[in-house]
What does this fold into?
Amino acid sequence: MSVLTLKGPRWVTVRQHRRALWALPAAFAVSLAVVVALRWWASLPSGLRSDNPDGPLRVGMEYAGMALLLLPLLLGAFVAGPMVARELESGTYRLALTQSSTPRAWLASKITVAAVAAVACSAALAGVYRIGWFPLDGTHQFSWADRGPYEALGTVLVAYCLLGVAVGALVGQLVRRTLAAMSVTGLVTGLVIALLGALRWSFLPVRTLTTSSAETGVPMPAGDTLMMDSGLTTASGERLPEWTCFARSHRSNVCPDDLNVTGWYLDYHPATHYWPTQSIETAVVLALAALALWAAFAVLRTRHR
It folds into this structure.
């Protein structure tokens, strides 16, 4: 978005927050440089580096995953505080309304600039994350289903950033106090991320593997999977916890006859469930963002009739 092609309220918004907007490409450049340096270190011959070449890369990418999870909260807090609530709190928004600008145009300019910046920033940083994640793919805490890689490698990160922008625009008008609006927006956005993160693996039905004998142990599916639940099955179809036999016989593969255990079961999600789950979660988040955006303009209409 070039400042030279912007007009009216959008030009004013970009000028007001140009330092914060310039911080986004700076963050991208620094992140890219750090990830490339960590990849280079991990690729050095064994004589030129430590015995654990992936150590610095793994630690750096763990922090990167946490930072990307916080990105929607930070973007939403900035929209709620400096972009909306601070102008309402200080009364400077009235100046914009005297410059042949309507309240709707005033708010729309802030949301548009923030949304474009959020999409560009989240997509760029997700690309940087993928560069660092690739050598760690499938290792501990870097599977496609783990928190951090799951969000950064798909579409939900962009959706959550747009949700943060929409929630920030709404909360900024309702609270009208800079710090309080930032705190509330971060809390609401974080709760949505946590809630959907807890529910995402219930969007699609799990696949189930079973065995016909308790002595064979838990069945192992082929390929990269996310294991959800495992245990014992009985002749009546009841499911028992996997420690039931061990509690009675002190041997995991020997079950008392009165339990009528017929085998084991394993519920899991295959890797092919990744993109369908991403699509469903992205649609839910964008729907919530649209609802928050509608509410933001509804509040604006109520207060500026």
